[in-house]
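sanity check this:
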Amino acid sequence: MEITDLTRMFAGAFSAVGLVLCLWLSRVEFGKIPRERKIHIGFATLSGLAFFKLLALAALFAIPATAVGVANYHTVEGVHDVDSCNRCHVMTPMVTDMRDPQSQSLAARHFKNGWIPKDQCYQCHSDYGLAGDMRAKMEGYRHLARYTTRTYTEPIMYRGVFHNDNCLKCHQGTPAFQAVPSHATVSERLAESSLSCTNCHGAAHPSRERRTPGHPDYSKLMGGAE
């Protein structure tokens, strides 16, 4: 079982426990709890009122905070996985195309040739280093918020400029890269991203037209179900 599955289970369990405790405590009449009642918890002895107050504190604050923390950890770590992108239907066309052995898009060629062994979406869309990692995860939060609140339109469009560093961090300096004379000719433009790698190597994903509802390819890119 993967760690993301475990965190999802823990978050669900904490949420369920918190809900059950809240419902149970809502029926407790705190004013009628006998002061002389004692409850033993391990080596500690608490009065009945103190025990139920601690339960209320856990149910209202501690358990929900833990559930939120675990859920956020799952979100932060889950963005590495391709299937986490595919859970939003607006991303399904990109994932379907990437996994299509007949596709000649840049993402599909990397996928079917095994050039990126895992976390294929994240590897290309995260910049180098810790700062790039955090920016990519914050973008994932933004995408999730837009998708959840339905504040988007299809076809979705990439905001900003895709930096060539995301390609060069793997390709630059390799024998295959160095063997292409034009790479040296346009090296400065590649470094500043004024010339995109996709200008020569083709689009990374299906075009906006193909990803637009109503286009003949839309149903296929959605996996056959719109």
Remarks:
- The radius of gyration is 26 Å.
